[in-house]
Amino acid sequence: MLDLLLTLAVAASTILSTILMLLPSRYIRPSPPKATSESSGAVDEPKISVQVLVLGDIGRSPRMQYHAMSIAKHGGRVDIIGYKESTPHPGLLNNPLITILPLPPPPRILRSNALPFIVAGPLKVLWQIWSLFHALGYATKPARWLLVQNPPSIPTLFISAVICFLRNTHLIIDWHNYGWTILAGTRGATHPFVTISKYYEAVMGRSAPVASFTVTDAMAKQLRNKPYNVRSPILTLHDRPAAIFQPISGNEARRAFLKCLPETSAQAESIMTGKTRLLVSSTSWTPDEDFNLLLEALCSYSGSAKQQPPILAIITGKGPQKQMYLERIAFLKKESRLQNVSIATAWLSTEDYATLLACADLGVCLHMSSSGVDLPMKVVDMFGAGLPVVGYGNYASWGELVKEGVNGRGFVTSDDLATVLGELFGDVEQKQLAKLRKGAIEEGKRRWDDEWGGVAGRLLGLCE
Ligand SMILES: Nc1nc2c(ncn2[C@@H]2O[C@H](COP(=O)(O)OP(=O)(O)O[C@H]3O[C@H](CO)[C@@H](O)[C@H](O)[C@@H]3O)[C@@H](O)[C@H]2O)c(=O)[nH]1
């Protein structure tokens, strides 16, 4: 009997020791040094170390890329972890303080619609759990901070909390929106997954982070109340334009760019003289943006009895519903409902995307906000480029971003949008657009760096 007990004790202690040895290493102050520059043999140590996590395409996650660049700019070491599907922001590449760690994408069968959601969903989550755990726990050095984008929240928030516990890391959740409201948009508000997801997000939000950032004041206020009841500090960090978004420097620069860009080259002169109006919208082609609103408005504009200037509409971005809308556009063209309107879609380099916004006459935003308290980054890009915006504005936080008649206009229905387009583009002297442009330039003056330093920089101990 004693022999058996002894054998069991040895086995249990061996298993426990093995588990302990296999656990991810822990963060110990100061952060592990990494050489950044060597002058007279001295090695600069990064001030802090941060894992920046987004369970999405890094290149299409502007806010998380800006976080990474800001941390590095202030001397912090960053591992940015996410999918690498498109080219990341140039500021991330070749930066000695920033390492990009790509997550392996789930197998093709889980990404296609071959399996029902009830099977593919959990399998995809299992895949993500393992890849996240490996990336955060083993493929990267221990860090003082983990800054995680929410949503997606499953399984990101849970894995982040476990990793922070194991590695002695402080967790910050960067709330861009809520996962459960997005899920409700596709599955319906009463779907059991939506309820589970809501309470999971509330529990994780309440228990896991040492602090949270939100994109609006309205969201911060919600998080302090039921069902979230977050008690750790919540700091609003409004999206602001990055330095790459600037108003165009003059007519010659505008003409040169419009002539070079394949989507605008044929109509460059006509846009320059104001005969054709250049409208730009950007999107991730997700179900929370109803492009039918824009298409219907363009059809009404096109069918108007009034003589109105032709429109060239360029929609930029990548995403799941793109093909569906391309088919819809082809149908409307075939039906001759887009007479004086041309529509092109594109995915541009970050530089070209920024310059196109600066060269356009009007930006359109169809972001509908599943939660009512997030805000579209694209409008911020547009203001940075000095571009006035017309956007869907029927949600609580819209007024935190766009001032009606000062830097943009809001709409609710496609008829409203058609009316606004008629008013702005039908104004031969372009006085209204000029006024809005002035407001957009003014709004775009406060930049990401100014906003970030006072909120995130201070929390991380990088700025005064
Ligand atoms: N390089 C490049 N980027 C593009 C292009 N077109 C769009 N983008 C990028 O895609 C973004 C728009 O993507 P959305 O997914 O439509 O984002 P959003 O609605 O404007 O805002 C998102 O981020 C916010 C936080 O920053 C969230 O609050 C919001 O819920 C949403 O997730 C733009 O800001 C821009 O960075 C392109 O042709 N080229």
Question: How would you describe this protein?
Answer:
It is a single-pass membrane protein. This protein is α/β, with parallel strands linked by helices and 464 residues long. Helices cover 43% and strands 16% of the residues. The strands form 3 sheets. A 7-stranded parallel sheet has the order 5-4-3-6-7-8-9. Strands 12-11-10-13-14-15 form a 6-stranded parallel sheet, with helices on both faces. The protein has a two-stranded antiparallel sheet with strand order 1-2. Strand 8, helix 8 (217-223) and strand 9 (234-236) form a beta-alpha-beta unit. Helix 4 runs parallel beside helix 5, helix 6 (179-187) runs antiparallel to helix 7 (192-207) and helix 11 crosses helix 15 (414-426). The radius of gyration is 25 Å and the shape is elongated. Guanosine-5'-diphosphate-alpha-D-mannose binds at residues 60, 62-63, 176-177, 215, 239, 282-284, 316-317, 346-348, 350, 353, 367, 374-378, 381.
